[in-house]
Specification:
By secondary structure, the protein is mainly β. It has strands at 4-7, 10-13, 18-24, 33-39, 46-52, 57-59, 67-72, 77-82, 91-103, 106-113, 117-122. The protein contains no helices and eleven strands. The strands form two sheets. Strands 2, 4, 5, 6, 9, 10 and 11 form a seven-stranded mixed sheet that branches. Strands 1-3-8-7 form a four-stranded antiparallel sheet, with no helix packed on it.
Length: 123
C-alpha cells in the first residue's frame, strides 16, 4: 500500500507558474509508476504526466513544453512544475501511484490516489 499527499495548489494568473508536490509513504522507486492526473468540472480525469520507476516520462500533449515532472528519492516525492499556465489548466490535480505485483502466472495491479489539490488559473 501507499498513501499519497499532494501540496502546492492554488490560484495563479494566466502565464504564471505553480509547483505541485506529492509525498509518498514508501520508497518511490518501489512504485512502478507515479504521475499526475487532473479533472475539471464536468470532465473526465485525464493524465497530465507520468514517470516510471526506471525514469521513463510521458506527458499529455497539451502540457508538453510547459510542465515538468520530476522526483526526489531522498524525500519520496514526485513533483510537477507548471509554467505558462492557461485558464484551461484549471482543475483538481491528483497524484497517482501504480503498483504491479506478479506471482507465477498471476498479476495484481493496484492504483492509489491522493486527495487532490485545486489549481485555478485566472484569465
Amino acid at each position: 500500500q501507499v498513501q499519497l499527499v499532494e501540496s502546492g495548489g492554488g490560484l495563479v494568473q494566466a502565464g504564471g507558474s505553480l509547483g505541485l508536490s506529492c509525498a509518498a509513504s514508501r520508497n518511490i522507486f518501489s512504485i512502478d509508476a507515479m504521475g499526475w492526473y487532473r479533472q475539471a468540472p464536468g470532465e473526465e480525469r485525464e493524465l497530465v504526466a507520468r514517470i516510471t520507476s526506471s525514469g521513463s516520462i510521458n506527458y499529455a500533449e497539451f502540457v508538453k513544453g510547459r510542465f515538468t515532472i520530476s522526483r526526489d528519492g531522498a524525500k519520496n516525492t514526485v513533483n510537477l512544475q507548471m509554467t505558462s499556465l492557461k485558464p484551461e489548466d484549471t482543475a483538481v490535480y491528483y497524484c497517482h501511484a501504480y503498483i504491479q505485483n506478479r506471482k507465477g502466472w498471476d498479476t495484481w495491479e493496484y492504483n492509489y490516489w491522493g486527495q487532490g489539490t485545486q489549481v485555478t488559473v485566472s484569465s
